[in-house]
Amino acid sequence: MAQPPTSPTVGAAVVVFLVRRSDQHVLIGKRKGKHGDGEWELPGGQIEYGESFSDSCQREVREETGLNCRNIQLVCVKNKVFDVIRRQFVVLFFSAECIDDDPQPVTMEPDKSQGWRWVPWCDICQGKYTPLFGILNDIAQEYPEPPWRMEVQTVKASPTTT
Predict the structure, then answer these.
(1) What is the pTM for the complete model shown?
(2) Total structural domains in the chain?
(3) Successive 10-residue mean pLDDT values, the chain, 162 residues
């Protein structure tokens, strides 16, 4: 087992509220493994050196779900301290619109995730999912309405010709 660092370290991470345009549902994934097994999370991870926030959001969403996103907007910033491992993270929460018309997330990291599902924001606010590290509960209390503003896209049937 890896030993905690002798001096505390600080990192930065992005987390993405990936929104499905058709119904404004947000994508959550069920964790697998030693950290947070069975708890729910949003796509995200550590920012790589020299990477912009937007690029980091796009990379993390693509690496974890196989989906692509756009219209990335900062929602809030949280500070999370993990005393046991002597790590601290500045976590930047973003909203982003899924580009795909019928997004089907893929479990790209099966060693870390049991899978993904689209859920309404009200289900998260009502505590129907146990969030990883409790941060999502804090945000749900601060934002009883979805913390993003995106237009719901309706698909119009094309007229048929006879």
Answers:
(1) 0.83
(2) 1
(3) 69 93 94 86 94 97 97 92 84 94 95 95 88 79 80 44 40
